[in-house]
Amino acid sequence: MLRNYFKTAFRNLWKTRSYSLLNIAGLAVGITCAALIFLWVEDELGYNQHFPNKEDIYIVKSRQTYDGVTYVFEATQGLLADAIQQEVPGIKQAIRMNWVSRELFTVGDKQLYQLGYYTDPGFMDIFSLEFVEGNRASAMNTINDIVLTQSSARIFFGNEPAVGKMLRLNSGEEMKVTGVVRDLPKNSTIQFNWLIDFKQYARKQEGLTTWGNNSIMTMVQLQPGASLHAINRTLLDFVKNKTNGEVTFSRNYLYPIDRWRLYNNFDKDGNEQEGRIRYVRLFSIIAWVVLLIACINFMNLATARSEKRAREVGMRKVMGATKPALVAQFLGEALLLSLLSALLAILLTYLFMAPFNQLVEKELTVRALTPAHLGFLVAIVLLCSLVAGSYPAFYLSSFNPITTLKGGKQKTGAAGSVRRGLVVLQYSAAIILIICTVIIFQQVQYVKGRDIGFDRSQVLLTSLRGDMVNHMDLIKTQLLATGSVESVGLSNMNILHIGGNTSGLTWDGKDPGQRSLISFLLTDADFVPAMHLQLKEGRNFRPRMQGDSQSILVNESFARLIRKDGQVSGQTVQWNGSTLTIVGVVKDFVYNDVYAAADPVFFYPFQSRSSGLMNIRTKAGVNLPQALTRIEKVIKDNNPGYPFEYDFLDDTFNKIFRSEMLIQQLAGVFAVLSVIISCLGLFGLAAFTAERRTREMGIRKVLGASISSLISLLNREFLTLVLVSFLVAFPLAWWIMGNWLADYQYRTPLHWWVFALAGAGALLIALLTVSSQAIRAALANPVKSLKEE
């Protein structure tokens, strides 16, 4: 009997191969979309899950409240790690880490920049690093030891053993390789190419031995069974107690590393709120929606062709087939279609994996169908078979055999209503995706187009290396002499990412209870003109900072913080024991959070230091490749020991929108695919409807109906369904995007015409899809159609 079912199934597939092809293609595309999205979701959910001790690994965070807003920082004091390891019960070990550093290493005549951490040796224990050369006991025992990852060791030394080899840091220190560890998985928040003892970093830094300086990360591993609640209660006022109440702003607590990637976002009260996990949930929903749309297509086409198989059902019932047997047959056909779709989906997934990886900037692989992936695919096939085959199975098996064998037609009102409802459902989902994609695009463009307070175009950023800062006047002169450069300004950080901040500023009239967090940037006199910042009051720093060592520039937000009228030129503020004079006010500009209003910031004179950035503005209309060649020559001539590397400020700005752009691109791709899948189903239903109404069309044509009226008659039903879909999608999309935009302080308004255009577009696509079948039916010879009927 099973063999007979399969023979019948294959025969029906071949007999209705055009409909079968539509079903298989639609379902395959749906499964492929779901597979790709769920691979991305699997990777995101797997972040930091591979560490053996993940449940005991935490990062120390600090809650600090300024002007009624609680900020959460990962920056902690250099003294904190040793103190809490010795004094807080339950902490197995605590380590210090700097923010990831980009250092230049030299091996022979090879020079390479590599990312890594200055950290304590306990890092290797906390994160259970696996050694492929050397061992834990001999690694990082002195400040001139370095541990490499397997990939970086291969870059430096090829296939030769790396342990015992020497590397030279750009600062001149000779570093000995004492270990090579296996690279961490890509879905790890902690990524590095090298590790060097933190003491090497600490001896070059000021402030790490004071409790008032928060500038490094602290990671801890707890003892098994330790009470997180008790430890956090101790950490809350730990710094305050250690300093006898002098440092009160830092209220520390432990944050689990396995939530670091997806939940690391906090509201104005310092409480955790959804971060990247929102995107994971969003795309999981999109995957299921696209898959559901594909299943709806199968269900609609199967029920639509039910009348064609009525005689078969009647004959089988007369021959003794039971209803369960008929249900099994039709579910089996659905399973066969799903299996064929799944096989095609596997092929499509492999084919589209590379472009999908490029889109999401990951290195996802199917890994030859692991048990987890295979289980997922089986579940999808069974789910699709049940969802897509259940209604046709029970519907067809309920036909009256006597009526069907006599040629009578079954009542199809309920089936038709279900089909229409499912068409509305799938088209509503497609329209919602289209609307969401357009509004996300609008939001990104709205923020990109806002007045950010400076001109980010034509600005090249390159790091100050070696002793460049000691002969900057010469370098600036030579750069300006190239004819390609308009101006050159110095800063310690990128203007878009100002990381320095302080709460230690005071001024006359400041409320003793007021605690304000104010950012600062170290700049020279050429920075303001190089960035095209606008002076609103006072003056810029004097050339070469003559007489301005104790002067600062402030933005309008800072000026309003000091005085309501913002007139602050000549006023003084106190900071770190020095009295600073405000000599000028610049127009507010956007930094750090491009979606928010400008925060207070001040510019402090650039110190003689080896680290920082040159902000080089090229002239408008200049030949860029030629300008880069000239700039590179000047910098290499003055600093031959370092390779020339650069970024454009415009590119840095665009990278800020990476998450939003990813959402927009993925939503856009799957919106298009959902429309295509919906159109496949609509095309199939239109073809069936035209076939079912052949006789009616023939009679109408004989009675004088025009071709245009026949086309309109056939189109009307489907276009009405699309219109209803739009009416359903409109309020849902408005609610979804209204909630999404509410998270942004600076956001685009919702425009009614976006929704109208999405509806009109869906209507036009549907019209083009069904019209081909309507035209074909309207142009058919009525004599032939009536004779066949």
Q: Per the principal axes of the C-alpha atoms, what is the gross shape? A: elongated
Mean pLDDT: 85
Overall SS class: alpha+beta
Number of helices: 24
Question: Roughly how many Å apart are the termini?
Answer: 34 Å
Low-confidence stretches: none
How many domains in all? 3
* Biggest sheet features: 8 strands, mixed
- Evaluate the radius of gyration: 34 Å
Assign a percent range to the helix content.
Answer: 40-55%
Q: Quaternary state, please?
A: single chain
Counting DSSP E segments of at least 2 residues, the number of strands comes to 27
GO molecular function: transmembrane transporter activity
Subcellular location: Cell membrane
InterPro entries: ABC3_permease_C, MacB_PCD, Macrolide_Exporter_MacB
Protein name: ABC transporter permease
Mind explaining what this structure looks like?
The protein is of the alpha+beta class and 789 residues long. The chain folds into three domains: 54-260, no CATH class; 278-320 and 370-446 and 658-788, no CATH class; 466-641, no CATH class. Helices cover 49% and strands 18% of the residues. It is built from 24 helices and 27 strands. The strands form five sheets. Strands 18, 19, 20, 21, 22, 23, 24 and 25 form an eight-stranded mixed β-sheet that branches. Strands 1, 2, 3, 4, 12 and 13 form a six-stranded antiparallel β-sheet that branches. A hairpin with a 2-residue loop joins β1 (57-66) and β2. α1 crosses α2 (17-45). It is elongated. The model has no long low-confidence stretch (mean pLDDT 85). Residues 20-233, 507-633 form the MacB-like periplasmic core domain. This is ABC transporter permease. The chain crosses the membrane at residues 21-41, 282-304, 325-352, 372-396, 417-441, 666-690, 718-738, 750-770.
